[in-house]
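TL;DR need structure tokens for one chain.
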Amino acid sequence: MTLVTPDTGTDDVDDAAFEERLAWALEDANLPTILAVLTHLTGNWSYLQSQFAPGPMRGPGDHDDAGLAKESQRELRATAHLVILDHMRGALPQVPAPTPEQLVEILSLVVGDDVPANTAGLLAEELGTASRTPASLTEPSRHGAPHTLIVGTGFSGLAAAIRLEEAGLPFTIIDKNDGVGGTWHENTYPGCGVDTPVHLYSFAFAQRPDWPRYFAGQGDVQGYLVSVAEQHGIREKVQYGTELESATWNDTAQHWSVTLRMPDGTRREADYGVIVSAVGQFNRPSSPKLPGLDTFTGPVVHTAAWDPQLDLAGKRVAVVGSGASAMQLVPAIRRKASHVTVFQRSPQWILPNPNAGEDVSEQKKFLMAHVPWYLGWYRLRQVWNFGDRMYRILRVDPSWEHPERSVNAANERHRVFLTGYIERQLKGRPELIEASTPAYPPYGKRPLLDHGWFESLTSENVDLVPESVAKVDQTGVTTRSGRHVEVDVIVLATGFDAINMLGPMELRGRSGATLRDTWGVDDARAYLGMSMPDFPNFFMLFGPNTNAGHGGSLVMTVEMQVRYILELLTHMSVEGIGSAEVRTEAFERFMTELDQALEGAVWSHPGMTSYYRNAKGRIVTNLPWTNAEYWTRTRHVDLGDYVLTPRKTATGAGPET
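>> reply
TL;DR here they are.
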């Protein structure tokens, strides 16, 4: 698998065959992306202000034709063919890369929206025209760098390991599984894949030009992570089958004394100067405590712990849950199973996307692999269209006249559009329309992608039961109303225990209190989602309140966090700091700002329950700000927010037993 940077080009541009293939590829180009590329390569803004100026976007999708007339499309492709060849052959004058402010202007024009000025820095880093890496350490300062334990090898853990390796900072990386990938290693149920466009759901520094599908499957995402780990030399450094069971802060020695569970089941003691938890929010399955489940005579499997030997051919399958995993699973198994019954506690808002289930054409792959900045600009449009563009739709308008069904005028327009989509997909099935239409505002829960869900519901061998499961017996499932359904297999599509963060670990801070004492079971809190008072030198990636519920990509969030942590570790190494602990006043100030912002979000609406909220109704998982605002907050470490204690020993703690 080849991974590239946004400016990647090709060396064979003088070959006639390349000219022909470029012309062939441009016939299927995304024209808004082409316009951005032309402006970037030439510095000529007239492309965006001429007959090629894109028209307004209508509905979901990539807007490939830019809303242009056929003749204008042909002219644009012909112009692009000449300009791209001239640039790649060195026939065009060298122009400076667009400034961050210019990126905002270009992006605004090619997405047909007013992209805010405060997005500039984030866009530059995502595109690659600005660095996301702090200054490198000098060799002498590395000798005093604390040794970091990274826990997990999903996107978060790999990002941390790659950046620490580049900086020359010592680290150990462990994973409880036998391979890298985190949740993408563990989740292998039929139909498993991303609900975020995969070109966005990938590292900015390691982009893949040949993704086979717009919304990639589990195997492709897992393969990407393995390739990233291999190409950066991380895969062979991982200690597999190793789990962090407990960690206690030693304030005298300024290190964490940890207990590791090894692959053979034994335990090993070790000391580390810093711990970075990269286990994220989607780490442990959430299994409902259904009375009688242990009496069922057939197989019971959770989607997050799928049995690859399970054969559903000819089986009657009960699917408990109708969230993200169920919506991927049911379309994937309905043709193999004899019958599928879905037990739904509450309906979900489902988003259509014309690219769902579609392959990326060979022409687009060619452009992404060979045309400088094409992949970068294609991805940057997604950064906005699937990210902060959605933020305003989720904010509560206190004066809105229909708060029971939506939270503002834009949210209402989405409700009307999505309701119409449900009615069209389930035409002639009024009972299914009623059962599938949520009563709460759009985006109150995680919005889901239609992978063939509605088509499945109208199949003869699929039933939707809009009731919770009350109990299970030897032969099947009984609902709250007393309906009994006989089945051969029960699949628990009930998601993850997202709010019980770091649940299996016992972490004991400077005062002797455990993290569970501090948080309880479901009220995780952290400064910037990364650090807590009383727990020096402990940082989380994709921790509490860092899930961009309005849109975006956790990968983008994680890259911001890794940069922040790396900057702090660099400062500690250079300045001889032994421990860094966020100040209580900084933590409390942040939490006040956070909770106030969350009050104005759609997730606070009383019309639904979700894994976003804990038992008291507090939103534990989601970020209340735009991605651009979070970028600003994490761009640099405010050292005044930390208690920085000088190093008491000559070197940082290492993994000594």
